[in-house]
């Protein structure tokens, strides 16, 4: 697809953000790191048609075939409060963008997945990095299955699906990207709205869950989410909050 379709969609929403497009990269987040190291100023957005080393949460592989997915990274400066709430804000923005473009509203699985039914369609990955001046910036990657590849299964550690049964024509990625950035900007401009919106879209509140945060294994009931985005889990020994980790629903 011509890059004009993406820039036109961004400009139509008042998003005058530099846009770079590649047919194939290792990962868009790694590409973003290289752009920062070379002195590119924030904000900017990168999109690739395929990734050959896509990365998910905690180093998991994110399979990124051409023609059936959207793989992008948005690099932005943000306040400390915005940085703290970036992941839930991105989840809400991604769900809203999907709903606007496809009519399907994905639910949010803490901390970084979008679900349709019980199947993962999308993952979000945020890194905090520094620009060449030493200022902190957010590197926010979004990978979305538009549809499942017809010729091979996706490599994944949980059940997966696509936003559509078949990738639509015309290409929905310009509209998805523009709506995602529009919704994200609106949320970050009003941080007090982020967690209420996240809770409305969250999947699994009241369910039995297992969480691995890299230091401990927790089993309990997902009770909700704190105002800073942490998960609240009721265990047999009391209520705990968890800032990050991998969550598994015991019902799945």
UniProtKB/TrEMBL annotation:
One GO location term (cellular component): cytoplasm
Keyword Chaperone recorded: no
UniProt xrefs under SUPFAM superfamilies: Class II aaRS and biotin synthetases (SSF55681)
CDD domains: BPL (cd16442)
InterPro entries: aa-tRNA-synth_II/BPL/LPL, Biotin_CoA_COase_ligase, BPL_LPL_catalytic
Protein name: Biotin operon repressor
Pfam families linked: BPL_LplA_LipB
Gene3D superfamilies hit by this protein: Bira Bifunctional Protein, Domain 2
MF GO annotations: biotin--[biotin carboxyl-carrier protein] ligase activity; transferase activity
Keywords, alphabetical: Ligase
Organism, as annotated: Lacticaseibacillus pantheris DSM 15945 = JCM 12539 = NBRC 106106
Statement: the UniProt record of this protein carries the keyword Ligase: yes
Ranges of residues in domain BPL/LPL catalytic: 23-130
A single GO BP: protein lipoylation
């Amino acid at each position: 697809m011509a890059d004009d379709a993406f820039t036109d969609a961004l400009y139509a929403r008042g998003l005058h953000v530099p846009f770079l497009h590649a047919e194939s990269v290792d990962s868009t987040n790694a590409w973003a790191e290289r752009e920062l190291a070379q002195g590119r100023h924030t904000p900017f957005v990168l999109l690739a048609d395929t990734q050959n080393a896509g990365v998910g949460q905690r180093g998991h592989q994110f399979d990124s075939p051409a023609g059936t997915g959207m793989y992008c990274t948005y690099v932005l400066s943000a306040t400390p409060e915005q940085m703290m709430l970036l992941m839930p804000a991105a989840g809400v923005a991604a769900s809203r963008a999907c709903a606007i473009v496809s009519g399907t509203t994905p639910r949010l699985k803490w901390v970084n997945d979008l679900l349709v039914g019980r199947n993962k369609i999308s993952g979000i990955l945020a890194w905090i990095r520094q620009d060449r001046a030493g200022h902190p910036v957010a590197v926010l990657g979004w990978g979305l299955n538009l549809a499942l590849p017809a010729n091979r299964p996706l490599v994944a550690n949980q059940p997966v699906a696509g936003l559509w049964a078949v990738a639509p024509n015309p290409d929905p990625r310009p509209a998805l990207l523009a709506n995602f950035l529009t919704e994200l900007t609106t949320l970050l401009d009003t941080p007090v709205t982020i967690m209420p919106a996240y809770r409305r879209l969250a999947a699994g509140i009241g369910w039995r869950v297992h969480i691995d945060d890299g230091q401990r294994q927790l089993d309990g009931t997902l009770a909700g989410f704190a105002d800073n985005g942490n998960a609240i889990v009721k265990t047999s020994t009391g209520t705990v909050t968890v800032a990050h980790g991998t969550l598994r629903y015991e019902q799945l």
